[in-house]
Amino acid sequence: MINTLQNIFSIPELRRRILFTLGMLAVYRIGCHVPTPGIDAQVLAKFFEGTEGTLLGMVSAFTGGALQRMTVFALGIMPYISASIILQLLTVVFEPIEKLSKEGEQGRKKITQYTRYGTIVLAVIQGAGIAAGLQTMTGPAGEPVVANPGPGFITLTVLTLTAGTAFIMWLGEQITERGIGNGISLIIFAGIIAGTPSAIVNSMRLVSTGAMTPTVILFILVLMLAVVSAIIFMERAQRRVPIHYAKRVVGMRNMGGQSSHLPLKINMSGVIPPIFASSIIMFPATVANLIDIPWVQSVAAVMTPGHWIYNLFYVAFIVFFCYFYTAVTFNPINVSENIKNQGGYVPGIRPGKETADYLDTVLSRLTFAGAIYVSAVCVLPTIMISKFNVPFFFGGTSLLIVVGVGMDTASQIEAHLISRSYEGFMKGATIKGRRG
Length: 436
Prior knowledge:
Blueprint lengths: L1 H9 L1 H20 L9 H7 L7 H8 L3 H4 L8 H16 L1 H7 L2 H33 L14 H28 L4 H11 L2 H14 L4 H23 L1 E8 L2 E3 L2 E3 L3 E7 L6 H10 L1 H8 L3 H9 L5 H22 L2 H10 L2 E2 L7 H36 L7 H24 L17
Antiparallel strand pairs: 1-4, 1-5, 2-3
Helix pairs in contact: 2-9, 2-10, 6-7, 6-8, 7-8, 8-9, 9-10, 10-19, 12-18, 12-19, 13-16, 14-15, 16-18, 17-18, 18-19
């Protein structure tokens, strides 16, 4: 590993990209500590005390603490993620967007532009909601979070939070273009990892006070290692459907006669199902903050993280969106026709409709396994907090993103090293054409 790190910084281009990425992430973390004007930070901190395991605690942990401190980056990059998901779904179900996606580089630029516009719109809406909510927040003694509420505060807060989200979006694009890895994913990664030191300190404090025993800490560490290993295994796991190509004559040459495979991932939908499920399941709590009606309050009480009804609905929505998003992004009929047009076939399966049915059956079984895996990881934080009194969120969408981004970034660094005939992260890898 030491030799690998030396190789990384011995390549000028790779060194420059890594340092640029680290610099942009440092700028992002600095912005996470710049407060929004007009807010009493001390009262806000008291309001967020003891929110571990609640909806506010979960959202704050996902933004790297920016929401809890109500900084200029309080909205994070989530408006951009939401806009990207909406455009991605529209690419499949809305014909004009679908045509744009097939127009090559110009079409992709147009979709990216629409995504930026959508990000600003969502940021304005979310910023207005946060500003209105801040005006109703009070500390333990009834002191207001906002000193001077009113239209002026709402306008200033919306502009500040929207500008912060736009700046984060620009940082992500710069990292993608001039750095290493996917910029947006790395920003989310940095925000999640930023909570690790405080989680370690809180755990040590609980051990020192006797609230947690060393045996529980050891069990949690072993469980965390097992969960991360399972996520790495499941994210790399795939079902390889064999494809054979018949021989055919093209001009003066014989083509085909070879074997290949169609890789089908177990978790083809990625982190989108838990994101969608979280957005829908947060609706009762959001309504309860705006409407003071007894039955609405009772519904919101059971739809909070940790309650068994919340977990039941959360898992149901995750399973539904796993199947929904997989069906939207993977069309067995089109894949079957492409295989048939290229002279390929699945051994023992007739080309055409039977191949499409076979792929659909395989994909349905894989999606079920993937949905159960994603659901287990996403429900894990509430179980650990309620059963073991863990003072931080471990699992869920955050862990899926951290592991996925880490694997993707390591793969890109590996590609840079191997392309220049250096040893990569994988020991014993044979580089074709390399001299001894």
